[in-house]
């Protein structure tokens, strides 16, 4: 075991760190204030190959792995979470279901453009009445001849309404199992399909430079061949996708937590109060020390979960632990950083103001903290 990153990983980390510092940081505050999607930044991320990091070269990817994606997410989130979640959702939720479960034709048609970042994919899972309880899906899809006819509504879907969104993979009830439970399948719906419309754009507390919309399906027809994976396996497929995605969200959370440390250190060495820099006061020192400890231990958690995943070992429990610990660290560090900055921490012009607004969703999205605790308990053998 080594505490050092392999040279290829370290080179990637440094290049994304530089990109985040020199390209994202100077402009993202304006995008955030306007609630505007940063197309130019996303295009540059695509040219860097970030959207293709964990995909094979034959699919248009970079031939890397999921840990490489996590490193990129951490470095982006140290500066801004809106661009980080755009990458995370585009890869983990948009392209990964097609890579993991799609047909050869689906992979050929969609993966090259998704890996290039010229197009984005989305994953339509959450509904107005079915968030953590994804088994309560009410969107339906019935077969009529050689077409699926989809009806329903999806909520809080990232990357779903941009000018470069190419598709959304939708979970829908396609029948009933022998035990009476709904049969849930995943179906690919290209943007612009008649009957598929983008609903309201949400006015969000955080992630304001990312795209999040409601999706509406009204007798939306797509070919039978747009089924992703096996019919009735959509629920199991999305569980696999979310297990992986929790590691990615953990990495993003660590980035935000570390960004709070970075900004607090800088500010503590600049800001003077009562005749000295505030970094000389033990109260501030202890806060920053606790923040660094949280970020450090959370990073170890997601590194471990990613290592287990790449080794082909079970990682569900470790992914849930990483997501729980990292999102808590992000929220706690954002609160402490805002306190260190005082009144300036409440101003949107300072990164910690954005960090504070962005942190809370990390305890909710891609599995709430309560769901993570439930998964950990079950993996320990406690009754469901």
Give the N-to-C terminal Cα separation. Answer: 35 Å
Q: State the CATH class of the largest domain.
A: Mainly Alpha
Give the radius of gyration. 21 Å
Average of pLDDT: 96
Question: What is the CATH architecture assignment of the largest domain?
Answer: Up-down Bundle
Largest sheet: 4 strands, mixed
Widest beta sheet: strand line-up: 1-4-5-8
Tally the structural domains: 3
Kindly identify the CATH topology of the largest domain. Answer: Butyryl-CoA Dehydrogenase, subunit A, domain 3
- What's the SSE pattern? HHHHHEEEEEEEEHEEHHHH
Rough outline: globular
Supply the helix-strand structural class: alpha+beta
Helix content: 40-55%
CATH-level-4 superfamily name of the largest domain? Butyryl-CoA Dehydrogenase, subunit A, domain 3
The low-pLDDT segments are none
Total number of helical segments?
A: 10
Count of β-strands: 10
- β-sheet strand percentage: 15-25%
Organism: Nocardiopsis ansamitocini
Family: Belongs to the acyl-CoA dehydrogenase family.
Protein name: Acyl-CoA dehydrogenase
Domain Acyl-CoA dehydrogenase/oxidase C-terminal: 232-380
